[in-house]
Design brief:
CATH topology of the largest domain in chain A: Cytochrome Bc1 Complex, Chain A, domain 1
Radius of gyration of chain B: 28 Å
CATH superfamily of the largest domain in chain B: Metalloenzyme, LuxS/M16 peptidase-like
CATH architecture of the largest domain in chain A: 2-Layer Sandwich
CATH class of the largest domain in chain A: Alpha Beta
Shape of chain A: globular
Structural class of chain B: alpha+beta
Number of domains of chain B: 2
CATH topology of the largest domain in chain B: Cytochrome Bc1 Complex, Chain A, domain 1
Number of helices of chain B: 19
Number of domains of chain A: 2
Order of helices and strands of chain A: HEEEEHHEEHHHHHEHEEHEEHHHHHE
Largest interface: A-B, 79 and 68 residues
Strand content of chain A: 15-25%
Radius of gyration of chain A: 26 Å
Largest sheet of chain A: 7 strands, mixed
CATH class of the largest domain in chain B: Alpha Beta
Number of strands of chain B: 12
Largest sheet of chain B: 6 strands, mixed
Oligomer: heterodimer
Strand content of chain B: 15-25%
Helix content of chain B: 40-55%
Shape of chain B: globular
Helix content of chain A: 40-55%
Amino acid sequence: MSQPRVRSIFFILILLLVLLLTGVVVADGKTAPGDLQVSEVKYTHCSLDNGLQIYVFEDYRVPLVEVNLWYKVGSLDESKSLSGISHLLEHLMFLGTKTLQKDQVHTLVRQVGGSNNAETSYAYTKYYEKVPAANLELAIAIEADRMHNLVIDAAEFTREKEVVKQEQRRNSRGSSSTSALKVISPHYDIIGSIKSINSLTVEQVLNHYRRYYVPNNAILAVAGAVAPQRVLELARKYFGEYQPKTIERLTSVADSKAEQPVVIETPTVVQPYIVMRYKLPAGDHPDLPALKIVLNILQSKLSATMQWEKKLISSVDCDVSILPESTQAKIVLCPKTKNNFAPVEAGVDAELSDLIQYGINEDTLKCYKVYFLRDMIFDQREPNSFSERVIKGVILFNDPEFYRREIQYVNAVTKDDLIRVAQKYLTKEQRVLYYIIPPKKR
Amino acid sequence: MKSVQKYIIGLVTISLFFMAQITWAQVEFSQNLYAKLAQSASPMPKIKIPEYQKVTLDNGLIIYLVEDHDLPILAINGTIRWGRGAETLKNAGISDLMMETINDQVYGGEIGQHYQLRGIRIGFNSGDDNFNFNGNALSSEKDALLAIVYEILCKANFENTDEVREEWEKSLKQKETDEVSLLYKYFYQNIFKEHPYSFDQDYTLLLDNLSKLNQKRLKSYYQQVFRPNNTLLFVYGDFKTAEMIKELKNFYSHWQAATGTFETVPAVENPDTFGQILLVDKANAKNARIVMGHQFNHAELFDKDLDVRTAFEVGNQVLGSGDFGSYLMDEIRSNKGYVYDISSKYFCNRSGGAFRIITSVRPDKACETVSAIKEMVQAIKTGQRKLIHTEVFRVINHKNAFFPESYRDKEEIIEDLIDNFEMKKHDMNYLNQYIASYNRVTAATAQTALKQLLFPEKMLTVIVGNKEAILPAFQEANIAVTVVSPK
């Protein structure tokens, strides 16, 4: 064979090899750079091909980083029979992987002088490590390992369920409006009941884990003394090979309005509660800020008249719960009488009518706006709490800039808007009324 | 042939290079990997004291000022050299009621709304050894913030006393059914026995006194306590120092100094409580809430010997920081699964303090938990359980890693300086001395400090829970328990 021919064959082979292997690297890692955005504010965003989203909030004042891995799964994703499973899984995520031993996550983090914890909520479960910036890779490695390689030991599963049950007992300090809400919907019960915790099995938990702990259902948010490029490098290295999965979510069931009030008798309360729920538009709707202000005002008014003046109730909570695909207003009252709730309901209706008829003055509205804005500014002292605002916008509305829209909506609210939204959304027709009562003595 | 060989070698080399890329992309998790990633010791931090200005007015008012123009905010914080420690049985609660009334004045009615409109946040609170307040706002509201701080420090009226007292009475009555309130009431009442450090938890005493604490008495107490030669102000944020000093002088130069000093009686141990187990029966409780501890009167020792202070602090973190890896969590949660959380804490005021271990368990596990805790503390005291270097190192390393964050802002550094230098009469550089001291702690010195200052035989145990569920295990173990019904 002549030299030129050998040379040609060699170069063709090289070309083929490069094409082949480059193709494998690209396909294998699915690690071609995603969209790198540099926000005009303070964060950088990109994502891997497998759907893992990455946000980096730079702050070089101290040599620490906080690594947060958010999974978009919480109590809202649980059917009644699996109530508490997301929270139980959160506990089990510290008990070992194929490599890590039980509690070794804590040991490793502490070894470098860091701290760590986790949190389960309605719409997310979050794991975080705060470590010296030099140990960023350790935190990312731990989260990647746990995303893919969790191992559940049967004996530890049983023991950890006892810990969760103890947490459940510890949090139930007598009755509260939170107890009442948990009764209405298990979606509000993040920890679950003793009964539901007892019934959960290893297999169910592993199914839940495999279903939701995937890169396209996760957000990696890093705040601190770290360059975005470094985070991307490490994310590619540790998460790059993981495969995305289709996530099927529970469909929310509309409240039944067939017969009201809905009476629920339960031993989890020792005094009765009246709960009024109002379905609202989605949490990123421009009317939401006005509704929050109305609920705030209503709470003050109900407290002043029905609690202190007329002494019909011993407590009242009014708020708006903003959840993905379902937002609602709740008024939770604890009546002083055990069986005649009509005066309490009439009192709420009267205050709402007053609000609609007379509105509020300009100064009061200004108060709410000023407080909202100053809290945003003070938040900027702490980059990690600011990063939470951004990430919650992503989780709830797929919009990291949601907080900016919220500022605009709040600034735009007028006195007339408050009346309009009260008239439109807080009506008897939109309301589902519950009586949550302790068991009758037989 | 040589050329062919060359080409083949070249091909293989290039292939190996690309193979290496693929291998890099697939991480193998292993103990070696984690060992490599977890090697790090944070250096001992040094906190730089930022530039500040200190001014003392003729009437004794001390003002610290620190400019920071990063954000358009302004904070005015303050400390008053007076505390609940000065109360007696006859006026127990007067400090807290005074502060509640002041806070209500700031937030209630037309005046309150006026300040809320400007986004001003301000709160006053009482401690055992001093009173504090914190106020902040956007710097655009400087005038309003300065005005309200002045109003409260110099001209508070107590016209709203009756309404506030009524509200406070309701909140105190609610504590009668709250498990945690019951727990602390019985614990502090017993270990301190009529010393003022127990008063704020003793809602029965506070309720008894409430009717006697009228507007006239509050005003008189306020005038005794709120005076310039008793007060330190700290102004921080977006302002110009020279202008601010001028404004503050305008406000406060005429504020009259007065005599009188804050005095407390030293706490005396109550030997009746040594080793006692008190069960406060609450029939509908789902949990057994437990606190175990004793008095901790070592302020003088800690002032004199910083190394003993830090050695105990580090040792206590190893014992009961509340984090995974602390002895109590390892034993009672990770091994036994009895609790969700458990920690050991202490405070050390000028006239006394307390060390306590707090947790809550399933009622039928209360006896085992109490015994396990006592055994743990005993083992540390006798040296049967030895602290080891890696555990102590972890605590120190954690402190070194997080200290810079705790003192990231100039505000925090100067507040610490004020507390240490002005209130506790330590050196100006006490913060860095403290850091150097805890970096000197070893397993041996931490163990010695715990041995010296912990007394398992003196621990009082208070449990709040359903006696029907809790008692049987104690009876079976032949452990004496005194049962009380809450009042």
